[in-house]
Design goal:
The complex is a heterodimer of chains A (500) and B (95). Chain A is of the alpha+beta class and 500 residues long. Helix content of chain A is 41%, strand content 19%. Chain A is built from 16 helices and 17 strands. In chain A, the strands form 4 sheets. In chain A, strands 1, 2, 7, 8, 11, 12, 13, 14 and 15 form a 9-stranded mixed β-sheet that branches. In chain A, strand 7 (118-123) and strand 8 form a beta hairpin. In chain A, helix 2 (68-80) crosses helix 5, helix 6 runs antiparallel to helix 7 and helix 9 (359-380) crosses helix 11. The longest helix of chain A has 22 residues, at 359-380. The two termini of chain A are 53 Å apart. With 95 residues, chain B is an alpha+beta fold. Chain B is built from 3 helices and 3 strands, in the order H-H-E-H-E-E. In chain B, strands 2-3 form a two-stranded antiparallel ribbon. In chain B, helix 1 (5-14) packs across helix 2. The longest helix of chain B has 19 residues, at 21-39. The two termini of chain B are 41 Å apart. The interface between A and B is large, with 50 and 37 residues.
């Protein structure tokens, strides 16, 4: 398959084909107890203005002091993005006026960001991968929150978020389809969750994206871009890109030009609309913040940050496929969420211990069980892995019973149902419900003999070539054994004995 | 480097200063005087001199990631022209 063609995303205009160009600026809230420059809490959902220090509210004379943990998390994130870490960086003031920005400027990093260029590999449909460049990552303050619809004449402002540390991760304009942008955003979220530098919770706003979209004829230079602000889900990012690209194509094909502007995505209508039409172009007048000395650290600090990183998703995926022989799809699904990857590893650890079998002999089967049986059953009762009543150790016990033929695959499903409901151990359930599979050849042979003796007509039919009656005999044995006969063993015995 | 009337007007607008039109010309003159004065610094030969980021010989102080502040809503809101339900209340920002 030609890798370039297979994922080509084209907008068919009236006058020909258009290519889209997308870049993302992802704002990720740094996981920390206190804010970037003050000792106020970052807790979500507190009473309005209760997590606010005099620094966050910009009282005169208050000075910012940087939170070292936020620096460390930014460096860890940079390392996870395979990016260059800048031992010297600096904070600048980005000046603008808005009611939820009490300082009148945001402390950000403009000329000298803490993290420079890097790249991530994203997985697309059909096993195709694409490398997306990272332009930079910098630290900055979040603003407060404005609420416009709770009072007839006032906008209400809560400064709890004011001063919370954000990492802005800026991609290169490397994406060419909504799918690629979605895959990139998911990949960044997965990475952040693995290393724990951001919880990646888009619903609570701890991760959101500004999406830059432009269109062009294939091979032409970049067109004028529009920036869609604050999109807060992967699906909305993809919808917004699709809508915005088509809007731009329509304008260009009608002979118009694209105004570089900031737009908002309306998830209800699925469209973007202009945000600040009359306001003059932004002029942020960045300059170095005189309240803050440059941010500097040494190689030892970077090495320490590197050593604190867990195994990253790409490495885990390679190990699951390469060493354990998982199907690529299973491996990618498990690795996509940190929780499921860790649960699977835990499951495998117990399973290897219990069965004494090498991991590569059982991993594939275990992954199938986890993805279809466990996830299916949890879904049914509206639970997820994090609140699963079945522990990885219990899951391994159940799987071990299947692997050594103690119970059949279908009995295992019933046991799992019971485990999810009661949290009991699988062995107890198997014993109580009498689900143990009969694989004892002697006992099964006796049973088969008895059934053949009772049904001479069917035996004769089989011997005349009507092999379909085999199903009848299997059914009889299962009935006789109350479903506990091992079907594979039964089939083998029947095949031999019926031949006569 | 010098500024003209239009630049002064634009900067004033960005800084949310209301400056009457007849003040723009004299203000441009004053600002240009300041710029000229600063411009004299460029006469100093700085070849081979490490860029200075501060006049004090200190590294940036780092704080530990501990919650040591907050929980003072009344003090925070005490200077606000208006507050409602524990929020700052400002004129409606959108229509």
């Amino acid at each position: 398959m030609n890798k370039d063609m297979s994922n080509k995303y084209i907008i068919k205009g009236a006058t020909g084909d258009w290519e889209i160009v997308v870049g993302l600026e992802i704002h990720a809230q740094v996981t920390s107890n206190a804010k970037l420059f003050s000792g106020a809490s970052t807790e979500f959902g507190s009473e309005p203005n209760s997590n606010v220090s005099l620094v966050d509210a910009a009282f005169p004379g208050m000075l910012p002091v940087i939170n070292g943990e936020c620096v460390r998390q930014a460096v860890r994130t940079g390392l996870a993005l395979g990016a260059e870490i800048n031992k010297f960086s600096r904070f600048d003031r980005k000046n603008y006026f808005y009611a939820d920005l009490p300082q009148g400027y945001q402390i950000s990093q403009f000329a000298h960001p803490i993290v420079g260029e890097g790249e991530v590999v994203v997985e697309l449909e059909g096993g195709i991968t694409k490398t997306i460049g990272i332009e930079r990552l910098h630290l900055e303050q979040d603003a407060g929150k404005s609420i416009h619809d709770q009072h007839p004449s006032f906008t209400l402002v809560d400064l709890n978020r004011s001063g919370v540390a954000l990492m802005e991760i800026v991609s290169k304009p490397d994406m060419r389809s909504p799918e690629e942008a979605g895959a990139y955003l998911r990949k960044i979220r997965t990475l952040l969750r693995y290393i724990g530098s951001c919880d990646g919770n888009m619903e609570q706003g701890s991760m959101r994206a500004d999406v830059n979209v432009s269109v062009r004829r294939s091979g032409e230079p970049f067109g004028t871009r529009c920036e869609i602000k604050n999109v807060n889900s992967v699906r909305f990012v993809m919808q917004a890109i699709d809508y915005e690209a088509r809007r731009q194509v329509d304008i260009l094909e009608d002979g118009g030009t694209i105004d570089q502007e900031t737009r908002l995505f309306d998830p209800g209508k699925g469209e973007t609309r202009s945000m600040r039409s009359k306001e003059e172009a932004h002029d942020y007048r960045y300059f170095p913040d005189p309240d803050l000395l440059p941010l500097e650290f040494d190689d030892a600090f970077i090495d320490e940050a590197r050593e604190s990183l867990p195994e990253l998703p790409d490495a885990k995926l390679a190990r699951f496929v390469g060493e354990w022989g998982l199907p690529a799809y299973n491996a990618a699904t498990l690795v996509g969420e940190k929780e499921s990857a860790l649960w699977f590893e835990d499951l495998m650890g117990h399973l290897v211990k219990q069965t004494g079998k090498p991991a590569e002999a059982i991993a594939s089967r275990a992954s199938n069980w986890m993805l279809s049986d466990l996830f299916g059953h949890l879904n049914k009762v509206g639970k997820s892995l994090t609140d699963s009543p079945v522990s990885a150790e219990q899951g391994a016990k159940l799987l071990a019973l299947v692997l050594d033929d103690t119970i059949s695959g279908s009995a295992a499903k019933d046991v799992l149902d019971d485990m999810i409901e009661t949290g009991r151990d699988p062995a107890v359930i198997v014993e109580e419900k009498g689900l143990k599979q009969v694989s004892d050849t002697g006992a099964l042979e006796a049973m088969v003999d008895k059934i053949m003796e009772a049904n001479p007509a069917q035996v004769a039919q089989f011997r005349e070539g009507k092999t379909k009656v085999l199903g009848f005999f299997v059914g009889q044995v299962m009935k006789e054994s109350r479903g506990q006969a091992n079907p594979a063993v039964v089939n083998k015995i029947l095949a031999e004995k019926l031949k006569g | 480097m010098s500024v003209d009337k239009a630049t002064v007007k634009r900067i004033a607008n960005l800084a949310r200063f209301r400056i009457e039109d007849e003040r723009l010309e004299p203000l441009a003159g004053e600002l240009n005087n300041i710029l000229d004065w600063i411009e004299q610094l460029s006469q100093v030969d700085t070849d081979g001199v490490k860029p200075m980021t501060s006049v004090v010989d200190h590294a940036l102080h780092w704080r530990a990631d501990e919650v040591t502040d907050g929980g003072k809503r009344d003090a925070i809101l005490s200077n606000a022209p208006a507050s409602e339900f524990g929020f700052f209340a400002v004129p409606k920002v959108i229509e």
